[in-house]
Backbone:
């Protein structure tokens, strides 16, 4: 069965970095894109962007450029989210979610998210 | 960016009720819309994609409709396990965006 298993909760100080992992199993890793979604405490879902698991090419949503990096290790079917220069407002649960990629009417990107990781809580506090 | 507006933001209902949640897109998105259910402390779960296609394993009491800018999620007979927050999401264009969520609470 398809599973996305994320790394555990993290407590970091402002200015530090964190790397969240998302290990996929039960399907061919390179057949689906990996997306990252943020959920701040008590708030809704915010799409951060996606990484093409065939090419390694990342696409970042506005507001997630610069300090956020998506990467892969296809040899172990794992995607990573690294956040540097952490701020208190980065405190959130971060989800990975897989999606097929479709090209149509000039848009090439992920569709809906059919499987999600369990989420990783990143807390930034001094 | 396409803005997704859900209404209501929350409401109370009883087991057995028929409930409808609305999602409106700020511009036309054809049928490129998904619905998710999220329970406290859990990851979202895909319910419906392509506006009206039920994801495998999702109970048939859930249904979706709409195209263009206006969409609805209907639960025909609310069960205890359906009390949760529901989100719509468009995948018509970048960036992918979610609605603000609709919390369904027990009356």
Residues:
């Amino acid at each position: 069965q398809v599973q996305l298993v994320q790394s555990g909760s993290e407590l970091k100080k402002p200015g530090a970095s964190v790397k969240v992992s998302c290990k996929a199993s039960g399907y061919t890793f390179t057949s689906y894109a990996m997306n990252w979604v943020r959920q701040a405490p008590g708030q809704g879902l915010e799409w951060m962007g996606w990484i093409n698991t065939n090419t390694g090419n990342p696409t970042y949503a506005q507001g997630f450029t610069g300090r956020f990096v998506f990467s892969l290790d296809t040899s172990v079917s794992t995607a990573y989210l690294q956040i540097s220069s952490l701020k208190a407002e980065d405190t959130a649960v971060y989800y990975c979610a897989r999606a097929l990629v479709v090209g149509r009417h000039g848009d090439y990107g992920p569709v809906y998210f059919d499987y999600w990781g369990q989420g990783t809580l990143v807390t930034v506090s001094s | 960016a396409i803005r997704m507006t859900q209404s209501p933001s929350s409401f109370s209902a009883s087991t057995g009720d028929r409930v409808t949640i609305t999602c409106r897109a700020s511009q036309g998105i054809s049928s490129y819309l998904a619905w998710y259910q999220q329970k406290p402390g859990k990851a979202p779960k895909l319910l419906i994609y392509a506006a009206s296609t039920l994801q495998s394993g999702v109970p048939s009491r859930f249904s979706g409709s709409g195209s263009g800018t206006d969409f609805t999620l209907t639960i025909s007979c609310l069960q205890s396990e359906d009390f949760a927050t529901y989100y719509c999401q468009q995948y018509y264009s970048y960036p992918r965006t979610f609605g603000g969520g609709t919390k369904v609470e027990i009356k």
In short: Residues 42 and 85 of chain A are 23 Å apart (CA to CA). DSSP finds no helices and 13 strands in chain A. The radius of gyration of chain A is 14 Å.
